[in-house]
Design goal:
single chain; about 700 residues; alpha/beta; Aldehyde Dehydrogenase, Chain A, domain 2; Thiol Ester Dehydrase, Chain A; five-stranded parallel beta sheet; about 25% strand
Amino acid sequence: MAVTSSATTSGAATSSAPVAAGPLRSFIAGHWVAPGGRETPLLDAATGREVATIADGELDIASMVDFGRTVGHRELAELTFHQRALMLKALAQHLMSIKDTLYPLSYATGATRSDSWIDIDGGIGVLYTYGSKGRRDMPNDTVYLDGPAEKLGKTGTFYGQHLYTSLPGVAVQINAFNFPVWGMLEKLAPAFLAGLPTIVKPATASAFLAEATVRAIVEAKILPPGALQLLTGPARGVLDHLDERDLVAFTGSASTARTLRRDDAVIVRGTRFTAEQDSLNCSILAPDATPGTPEFDLYVKALVTEMTAKAGQKCTAIRRALVPESLREAVIDAAQDRITAKVRVGDPRTNGVTMGALVSTAQRDEVLSRVHQLIADGGELAIGNIDRFAVTGADAEAGAFLPPILISSPASADAPHRVEAFGPVATLIGYSDLDHAAELAARGRGSLVASIITHNPDSARHLTRALAPWHGRILLLDRDDAAESTGHGSPLPHLVHGGPGRAGGGEEMGGIRGVLHHMQRTAIQGSPNLLTAVTDRYVPGAPIRTRQTAHDDIPWEHPFRKPLSRLRIGDAVQAGPRPVTLDDIEAFAHTTGDMFYAHMNQQAAEANPLFGGRVAHGYMLISWAAGLFVDPAPGPVLANTGLEDLRFITPVKPGDEITVILVAAQITPRETDDYGEVRWATTITNQRGETVATYTVLTMVAKQ
């Protein structure tokens, strides 16, 4: 189909097109290497001018894999999670300082300024997030414990613990063309934090931007040798060198993912493989969101945004707009009005342009072929003239331009749930009721994201529970969260990015979940003493050092007198007993105002099946415990910062006595401060040896 242009010359260019960069190189084993072979030009998506060339010569992939497994793994294995996290933060700061050098190349991919912000600044934001979460949510160690130790025997001499360790291989990350920076950094960050060296394989069409970003990273000399390598050009045979030590993370088409899944590296040698692939994401307009409501306006705004951001080339873009049948025409009219008012297609360097080009003319033609498939299955072109449309500041024939396209399809059509037009295209489908909407959503056979636009809690509950098994993420959007919402198409590093079924079944990012995905989880079984030694976390039953257990030749010292440099796991204080009287209970109740009947009303407390009489306040007991174990003099302990996992187990009655044992259970020095966190396992018992309460005390302690 011919595409003609009513292009104008209005709007001054914000910057000129980038000068041809010559052949792209790969970064292999610490060196930049030209692949050789036949060179193919990479063209500016808006102007058609050459930006760079990419060659198809063979590269020494075996050396890349070996360098990552040896030098890269060795360098990363010596670093703790906190040290790696600080490197990610430093890298984010560096890239933020030079990001303006990347924007001109981003424009050449067809991206506007706002599109480039999503890709470049968004990718840098992922580094910042993992730099923060690595220090806040992970230990200053090289291993990560999955939950508390579990008691496996009756007497407490046999425990189990799940332990995560770094893989001794490499992460091969095969990325898509649409986000050459974000797509790379959102995979690199969790892999690096997990201690796994990365080999990046960018998509050809936008590889010049990925190469420039890797050059900036390499020149900064922040990451250790072998932590990051770059493979431009063909990736022929890359899986031939991988085995059970390695991981492949792929973003792209389902057909390519299917080929990779069938490779011997995956099905014979056990290489871990995840895919983020085709996804027919949906957005549902609930029946309460009628014209005139904030939710209706939010729906239309989101629909147009997802059709036009990155020219619709987003794996999370809205492909299926599900609306009440009675609102079909209202949504079409409102979307057309917004496109007319807000959208201007053209060269992204031209002032006023809000939607750029697709990444290549080949991609444009592929999208058009999918549009014809959607129309052939009963769809009607509701918005967008694919034969003639205005392009600002560029030649529509030379650039890979398309207008926003909305196809109105009957609910009986099959193509909208099967055909993905990876461009500025969405299909509008009417539904009869919420169950019908959920049924239509499920016909996508698994998607990355769905959004539900409603102010009705019942609709939100009904649709979310119906859609959740089919989606990796669900956005609930209404007037209350709109100001802070990041939108339908914006994955966040804190949350899982992936989806079941057609979407590939992978889970990228997801905060610390994304880090652990790159590590091996192993179940460790053994005695408390041995598990404490392996994990550097106290397991109940392991030896402790109290005044009562100290040897004459090793004088006991209160653990609160020890800085981190001298404090050890198992250092402990045992204090008590202290008797509990009725007067104590009365005084605490009147001081605090806690007059709960179990503490103050004998008759009511006796009728309570849990107590059988008046009992002491739990908070009185933990306050007393602190009074028993605290060393009051100034010293290394700087502050009590919290209390976790508090459980009251056995009631304490007047006449009982309590004893407390406080044990240094985990010690986490901070890399950038002169103090660190100590977690103290705390147990209160009564005179019969029964456990009254257990909890963890958190303190900040000076290093020296």
